[in-house]
Amino acid sequence: MARRTDLRPVVKLRSTGGTGYTYVTRKNRRNNPDRLVLRKFDPVLRRHVDFREER
């Protein structure tokens, strides 16, 4: 069975710390129509920072 990529698209999360580090994840467009913001670990800065969705 094929994946429904229109409902759960792949998004890139870019660090707000200015390092350029990214995470790749999927999000549910029905539950989160806005841009996703997650607090995750940035290994370049070696601390937790906000990661924002970029399109």
Biggest sheet, spatial arrangement of strands: 2-1-4-3
CATH class: Mainly Beta
List the total number of helices: 0
Give me the strand/helix succession: EEEE
Number of strands: 4
Give the end-to-end Cα distance, rounded to a whole number of Å. Answer: 27 Å
The value of Rg in angstroms is: 13 Å
The major beta sheet can be summarized as:
4 strands, antiparallel
Overall pLDDT confidence: 92
Number of domains: 1
- Portion in helices: under 10%
Structural class: mainly beta
**Rough shape?**
elongated
Strand content: over 45%
Given as residue ranges, the uncertain stretches (5+ residues, pLDDT < 50) are none
CATH architecture: Single Sheet
State the CATH topology: Rubrerythrin, domain 2
CATH homologous superfamily caption: Ribosomal protein L33
Q: Please, could you describe this protein's structure?
A:
The protein has 55 residues and is mainly β. It has one domain (10-54): Rubrerythrin, domain 2 (Single Sheet), CATH 2.20.28.120. 0% of the residues lie in helices and 45% in strands. The chain contains no helices and 4 strands. It has strands at 10-15, 22-26, 37-42, 47-54. It has a 4-stranded antiparallel sheet with strand order 2-1-4-3, with no helix packed on it. Strand 3 and strand 4 (47-54) form a beta hairpin.
Keywords:
mainly beta, Large ribosomal subunit protein bL33, 55 residues, Ribosomal_bL33_sf, elongated, Rubrerythrin, domain 2, Ribosomal_bL33_CS, four-stranded antiparallel beta sheet, 4 strands
